[in-house]
Every structure is written in C-alpha cells, then in structure tokens.
Amino acid sequence: MDDGFSDISCPQWDDLPMGIAALAEDLIARVATLQDASKRPWDHFRLEIWEDSGRIVAFPADLAEPCRVDVAGCQLTCAHLATREIW
To answer: What does pTM read for this prediction?
Structure first.
C-alpha cells in the first residue's frame, strides 16, 4: 500500500504474535509520526478485526470526531485467521 498505509503479511496462525508486534512498531514509529505531522487531531489507535478476510486494520482516530481523521495506518493480513474457527 503506498497511500500512507502499510501491509504486513502473516502466512500462518503461529506467525500472528510477530505480526502484531510489527504492526505495533509500525504504528508507533511511522503512523504516529505521519499523523502528528499532519496536525490532524487524534487521541487513540483504532483497531478493527475483519475475521472474514483475515485482516487487522489499525489507524489513528479521535473520539470527539465522528469522521475519520487518519492520514496513515497499518493492515496486518493473516489468511489463516480467516479460515480458523476461533470466533
């Protein structure tokens, strides 16, 4: 993804902890920096789990703002997450 959003791939369920660590590192090092530089308000990272497609999407958000404020984010994709009977 080249529009401020990165994509991390985890092929297997066992790779998910390392993928989540990479997602957290990207959020802190890259996404927060880009969001701060944009001067758009934010007060937390929002995480959405899309189990049907095996994606975990994280981006800056602002509780006081009903519209999206993110200028960057990160997506973790784990195909095995979509096929696993954990939900």
So the answer is: 0.83
Q: How far apart are CA 14 and CA 10, in angstroms?
A: 8
Task: Sheet with 5-9: list strands edge to edge.
Answer: 5-9, 73-77, 55-61, 44-50
Q: Which long-range contacts (CB under 8 A, 24 or more apart) does 17-22 make?
A: 19/76, 19/78, 20/56, 20/76, 22/76
Tokens encoding 37: 């530089």
Which tokens go with 62? 């602002």
pLDDT digits (tens, 9 = 90+) for 31-58: 999 999 999 999 999 999 998 899 999 9
What residues are paired with 76 via a beta bridge?
8, 56
What confidence tens digit (pLDDT) does each residue in 56-73 have?
Answer: 999 999 999 888 899 999
What is the full DSSP assignment across 8-75? EE--SGGGHHHHHHHHHHHIIIIIHHHHHHHT----EEEEEEETTTTEEEEEEE-TT-SS---S-EEE
